Structure formats: structure tokens, C-alpha cells
Amino acid sequence: MFGTHFYNRSFRKYVVIFGTMFNNLSIKRYANDGTAREVIKVPLAYGAKEKFITRLQQDPTLTKSVAITLPRLNFEMTNISYDSSRKQQSAIKIAAADTTVKRTVKSQYVGAPYNFDFTLSIFVRNIEDGTQLVEQILPYFVPDYTVTANLVPSLNIIKDIPIVLNSVSQNIEYEGNLDSQRIITWDLTFTVKGYLFGPVANSAIIIGIDSGVVANSANIITGGSTTNLFYDTNNKAIQTVVMQNTANTGNGKYLEGETINVENRRDVLGTVLYWRPNSNTLIATSMTGVLSANDIVIGADSHARYLVSTVETTPLLIANTKITQNPVTADTNDDFGYTIQSKEYPDTL
């Protein structure tokens, strides 16, 4: 179940979203007449609060070679928790057309709701510097501020992300002797109500349906009803290829479910869905690329090795349903029963 690599950069996006809100704060220092004599843009960094406190305690005058200035902001992600109150039905899928491969749909299950807790810490020398910064932040959170983000660009999944302000606290440390530098800090805690998404899957689409009811001139049903569903077989979701037996250097039998790769094409991987040795036909699924003629396909477990001769373009029958009237010679004007026979892939082969 686990092991299929995917990375939607969700954690990185939430860190960037949170940090971007506070990366343009500044403070002003005023003269006695009330005019602004200095404007200081406050730097922002990601890291643990304790690191900055230790730095200030070890060098209260800030004269050592490692540079740090006040005022300063830092933030960090402190906790992640599942939010069951925002859970949606697990079977819901989000889908979009794959513009890179014909007749293929990209899909992904609805995201799992998670809360990401962040702490924003403010370090200042003067009490008024701290209140200036806090006052520039608090009015926007009542108690939440909502940002919009494209969480999965390949499917254009755009979500409104509420960022909730949970608490605000101030701390002034006077510990130490009379020469010790006081440390004024503000801690603001937030919760980012985000989502985590699984891998994006490529699925073939149904490109054909055959259905029919046969009755004679006397309204006697003679053929029942048959419905066939077809998949396009020339895409990343499911592919059918015919192999040349002369290229085989393994045991000649691909194993269902094993991983396959293409020699000299590292970007193409997939899984064996079905192998028909009597016709040297391979049906592969979950492909990362489209197989082509002259590709050499290698089974990771069986070590079977075949050269692709042709790529099938005939749609693959994935489901067949036949409804037969009971009795067989039923009149369309009368009540009658029926029996249903269904087959699904690979029984349709």
C-alpha cells in the first residue's frame, strides 16, 4: 500500500503561506515632537525561539561576529493534528483532464484535513517596539484570517485556508545580575487549517459503450441486452503492447503485480496487470510514461525481458453485462423477468 512516491509540497506551502504574512512588518522610532525619525524593517526567520534567546543571553550587547539584530521575528511549526470536524466523505475524488496524454484523466482523493500549529515570536529591546508590531497583526485576525492557495496545481485544487489566532502573550525576562540585558518577547500562536493530499493517479476514460436489445417483428425479445464498456489502451493509465519473443532473455513470464521498467528510459515505470504468454501480449497499468515500439520492458521480479513489437490501439473491454429475458421468448407487451450476467476485466479477455 505504501511506497509509491509522491510529494505535493504541502508542508512547504503552509510554511511559506504563514511566513509571507509577516515578512513586511516594520516599526518607527519617533522624536520628541512626534515625527518619525527612523523606520526599521523587521527581519523574519524560521527557527526555534530558544535559539534566539540563547544568542541574546550569551551576547547581550550583540557585538560578536555572529550577526543578530533587534527587533526580530521568528516562527516555527510546532504541532500537527488531524481535524475530524472537517472530514469529508473519503471516496470523493477530484479529477481533471490530463493535457499531456490523450484520453486520460488525472484524479486524486479529497484531502485529509489537518491543523498545523505555528508560533510567531517577536524579540524587541523596547516595549513600544513590541506593541507596534503586535498592533499591526491583531486587527486582521477576528479571530481568523483566510488566504487562498493552489494546493495541487496539476489538478488546480484551490482552497481557502483559515489561519486562526489562538493566543497572545508577553514575557519580560529580568533574571540575572544588574548588568544583564532584559529580553522582551511576544508569542502569538496560530492554527492553519489545511489539507494533505495523496498521490495523483492517471486513469483511462471510458471511450465506448455498446448496448442493444433485439426483438423481432412480433415484439418477441430474442437477444436480450448486452452492454460493453471500453477503455482506451494507449495512455499511462492502462496500455496493451505485443512483444517479440526473440528479445526474451529471462524466463519469459511476467508476474502480475510486479514492477516493470524500460531499458534506457528511467522515467518509465509501471505494473504488470496481465500477461498472455500465448500471444506475447502485456497489459500494463500505473505507467509513468507511454510505451513505444522497440522499448525493452524488464520485469523487476521475474527478470522477463521483451522487446515491444507493436502498441495496441484497440480499446480494451473492461466490463460486459448481459441481461437475458426470462422466459427466453418474452413478449415486450407482457411482464417478464430477467437474469443478469456480468464480467469484469480480466475475465473479459
Write a structural description.
A 6-stranded mixed β-sheet has the order 3-4-7-10-9-8. It starts with 9 loop residues before the first helix and ends in a 5-residue tail after the last strand. The chain has 3 helices and 21 strands. By secondary structure, the protein is mainly β. The mean pLDDT is 79. It has helices at residues 10-20, 49-58, 127-137; strands at 26-30, 36-41, 44-46, 72-82, 93-97, 104-109, 112-124, 144-152, 157-173, 183-196, 201-204, 206-215, 221-231, 238-244, 259-262, 265-276, 281-285, 296-299, 305-311, 316-326, 337-344. 9% of the residues lie in helices and 49% in strands. Strand 12 and strand 13 form a beta hairpin.
Quick overview of this protein structure:
By secondary structure, the protein is mainly beta. Helices cover 9% and strands 49% of the residues. Strands 3-4-7-10-9-8 form a 6-stranded mixed beta sheet. It has a 6-stranded antiparallel barrel with strand order 14-17-16-15-18-19.
The CATH superfamily of the domain at 10-80 and 114-149 and 159-193 is known as Myoviridae tail sheath stabiliser
Straight-line distance between termini: 27 Å
- With strands numbered from the N-terminus, the spatial order across the biggest sheet is 3-4-7-10-9-8
Order of helices and strands: HEEEHEEEEHEEEEEEEEEEEEEE
Number of helices: 3
Uncertain stretches of 5 or more adjacent residues: none
Q: What is the SS-derived class?
A: mainly beta
- Sheet-strand content, in percent, reads over 45%
Query: What would you call the shape?
Result: elongated
- Total beta strand runs: 21
Write down the CATH class of the domain at 10-80 and 114-149 and 159-193. Answer: Alpha Beta
Helix content: under 10%
